Amino acid sequence: MKIVAVIPARLKSTRLPNKVLTNINGKPMIQHVYERVSKADLYDVVVACDDKKIYDIVKSFGGKVMMTRKDHINGSSRIAEVASAIDVDIIINVQGDEPLINSKVINQVIEAFSDEECVMATLKQKIENERDIMNPNCVKVITDKNSNAIYFSRYPLPYLRENKAQDYFKHIGIYGYKREFLLDYVKMEPTELEIAESLEQLRVIENGFKIKVLETDCKLVGVDTQDDLKRVSKLLKHNNV
């Protein structure tokens, strides 16, 4: 299979403006992401951007980049534009604000497609910090016995009626799609649960498709705040990832 990672990168960000171009220990964030993603078992890596500043930076460090429309409502729509223009079997969607991304994580997603029936895959991780269980920004996921997603929610899942010990899992936002499924998916209308939770992956479940969810123990640190940026910079500086 021809597997390509696409990194959607937009310039505007509410909490950290221009964050994908933020300098981290001498390199823009997008370069850290690109170089780490490139270590995975992939045919190619492409940045999908909406601004010439990002385009020029990626070109300057020798990366592959494609300019996409500015009117995309989410990353899935942006990578679908790339998928429609290239010869590929599987698309891996890696966020542009994950400078500590581990190639092992990407390879885990790729492994899901050894099952020919798999059309979409993602990851989960056991929640270790109890505060994250009630944190609506930490998306929880529950799966069936075949590791397919039952539901994603910002609310703690499952509800513990008898207060018994229970493992909770957070969703790790890295996705893999079969190309044709991705192109069909972005044409689907937003669904009620998707809108209620503001979680676009629920559209897949509501339309009757399965999402394979594999567990990973790799630690990821996305960058949304200045504190995140300082933490990532420190970890990279000391090669602690």
UniProtKB/TrEMBL annotation:
Subcellular location: Cytoplasm; Membrane
Main localization, broad class: cytoplasm
Cleaved signal peptide residues: none
One Gene Ontology cellular component: membrane
Keywords of the record: Cytoplasm, Lipopolysaccharide biosynthesis, Nucleotidyltransferase, Transferase
UniProt pathway annotation: Nucleotide-sugar biosynthesis; CMP-3-deoxy-D-manno-octulosonate biosynthesis; CMP-3-deoxy-D-manno-octulosonate from 3-deoxy-D-manno-octulosonate and CTP: step 1/1
EC number per UniProt: 2.7.7.38
Reactions the enzyme catalyzes: 3-deoxy-alpha-D-manno-oct-2-ulosonate + CTP = CMP-3-deoxy-beta-D-manno-octulosonate + diphosphate
GO MF term set: 3-deoxy-manno-octulosonate cytidylyltransferase activity
Protein known as: 3-deoxy-manno-octulosonate cytidylyltransferase
